[in-house]
């Protein structure tokens, strides 16, 4: 090795030691902050979260009061007018206020369905990846059965079994659809960690298997699962809206929900007021796009192969 090459290596080593290095998470955060796609997705998601959290304060009117019910003729919604920029629904309620309040309903359903699917899927994936054997065989064959059915069709089938569809019907149906996806991904990550050097070293030192699973294998397998949860949240919102569109969601006509609003507008009032279907449909697509952009950017940022 030449003196010049050795000097360069020493300089690089000194620079790395002085900077202290950066973790994968810090490096991923830096790349996200420089990624316009990630910034766009983060802005959309942040605005959606703020809108959902502060919906009662942001809504210009009470979304449940029938302000213009006396002006409704034959159940036809009214168009835009002073004080009602988007018009009213068939009950004379302010459409803009109902759109804003409906964002909270979509957030609750999407988040709850994703969290339930994530929790159950993580339990199944951890047991399958850690124990192997017949446990792995039984759990993975069960997930194969669920994955063999199209997700929306499976959600519709589950929701249709309910005697009285409601909000929790949608949450349970959508969460069951996402369980096998989380279980499969975590199981694959756990199996990849099983043969890694640090796990083999821990076994050689006599560390208990439970400690190896929960302190070494599981923490190092969670990154792709977290990214998938972000992407699944977008899918959950879309599938919940689809169930409400088909009439399998909350049966309370007073509760505002984007999917139900879209279904009612497109099926009953599309000829007279097509814009009633445009606004909830646009809101669903925009929110799903925001979570998808953020999730894809997060996946790329956490990929060690993309580190520079």
Short note summarizing the structure:
Helix content is 71%, strand content 0%. The chain is mainly alpha-helical.
Describe this protein's structure.
Helix content is 71%, strand content 0%. It has 308 residues and is mainly alpha-helical. It has one domain: MetI-like fold. Helix 9 runs antiparallel to helix 10 (209-217).
Explain the layout of strands and helices.
Elements: H1 3-19, H2 24-33, H3 36-53, H4 55-58, H5 95-131, H6 133-147, H7 151-160, H8 167-194, H9 197-204, H10 209-217, H11 222-245, H12 258-268, H13 275-302
Helix pairs in contact: 2-13, 3-5, 3-13, 5-6, 5-8, 5-11, 6-8, 7-8, 8-11, 9-10, 11-12, 11-13, 12-13
Estimate the global geometry from the Cα principal axes: elongated
The radius of gyration is 25 Å
Question: Can you tell me the residue ranges where pLDDT is under 50 for at least 5 consecutive residues?
Answer: 15-21
The count of β-strands is: 0
